[in-house]
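hey so u asked for the seq, here:
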Amino acid sequence: MSNKGIVVITGGGRGIGAACAQLFHQNGYKVFLAARTENELKQVCHALDPSGESAAYAVVDLKKEVSVQLILERCKKQLGVPTILINNAGRVHLAKIVNEDLRQWRDTFAVNLDAVLILTQQALRVMPAGSSIINVSSISGVYNTEKLPKLAAYSASKAGLIALSEVTAVEGKEKNITCVCISPGSVETRMLRSVAGPQFPKGAAPETVAQAIFEAATTKREQWNGKNVELFR
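ran it, structure tokens below
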């Protein structure tokens, strides 16, 4: 297998993250996955490469700073220095603003925004020139789009992620590291069903989002740098 680079994907055990892992691996990249659920991570990696030479994982809790700080170092030890970082993991909980629990709010921001900051700091320090950072936000975080009730923490954190991506793109120019934000609408994932329920119309395929991420990280790096790419609005 040729090695075009090494991709770190958070939330890589299912949904968009797993679709990204498959697409990048098919195109000659090594993949390193990080998420909470080991059996899902193990299944994805085993399907890609049972030997573990080109697909590996780490079980991490993205709410915990110490855990997040170890991801890129583990990737470096197992596969090599990463060249693409995909901040895909997301957390959602349902609560009206008047009933919002501050602990749940902070946990949502810890996964959706704080973990991205920590990984971005490390990526800008260790990834070589020509690398890419892709942040997966949401239409829920885009200004002037219709918002759903009970998603204040999710929407606010995803809006913050879009802004963080724009600043990352500016600061990354010093090292020729690009940053693109991808903001999908409804995608058929476990998270969508947990929020919208079984009666909600079927969302887009995770593979469609993965394709946009692949293009942003590889074929359209400079063209898309600093952009927030909206999908399925």
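The beta strands are 5-10, 29-35, 55-59, 84-87, 132-136, 178-184, 228-231. The chain has one domain: 5-231.
lmk if thats what u needed
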